[in-house]
Amino acid sequence: MKKNQTAFMKLCLADALIKLMKTQDFDTINVNSICREADIGRTTFYRYFENKNSKEEMLLFKIKYEWEQYSDRHENDGQGKKPDLTEFIYDSRKLFSILYQNNLISVIMRALEDLIPSGETYDKQASYLMSFFIYGYFGIIYQWIKYDFDETPEQIQKHINDTIALAQNS
Q: Considering the entire predicted model, what is its pTM?
């Protein structure tokens, strides 16, 4: 129960922040305005987030939570299809566009680092390869956001697959 309540409050705060980001610059949004929008007190804010600079953490929590919900829905849809990150990003394109418009590239990058399963590896070569893949994937996703999602998730996935195939054949 406590876990659900914590998630609910963090999502309320994140949603308030996102709503404010539609009309205000990210850097000008403060804890007071987030709390006012979420209709909660500052004490409650600090119960869930460490400091006033936790705005990026709110956004990351929102993305990770939404991904978990998306994954659960798609794993249990009876089709046996694995959840697709490009589909998720496309379905969440309003949020990713707001992040892009507010120059929160680091939030998008950190979210992808967390969402792309890479496993813990102590092999330096494998670690370099995973970093190359994650940041290459980020580059393609970033361009897609920049071009206002002008292609389907399937087309983007094809670009990613073609890039990987080209690298393997070189």
A: 0.88
Measured in degrees and rounded to the nearest 5, phi and psi for residue 81 equal -85, 135
**Residue boundaries of the structural domains of the chain:** 2-169
Topology (CATH) of 2-169? Tetracycline Repressor; domain 2 (1.10.357)
What are 5-55's pLDDT values in tens digits? Answer: 899 999 999 999 999 999 999 999 999 999 999 999 999 999 999 887 799
Nearest alpha-carbon partner for 55 in 13, 87, 100: 13
In this prediction, residue 80 carries a pLDDT of 58
Show the DSSP H helices in the chain as ranges: 2-21, 31-38, 42-48, 55-75, 85-91, 93-101, 105-115, 124-146, 153-169
**Quick one: how far is CA 59 from the chain centroid?**
7
Are 17 and 48 in contact by the 8 Å Cβ rule? The answer is no
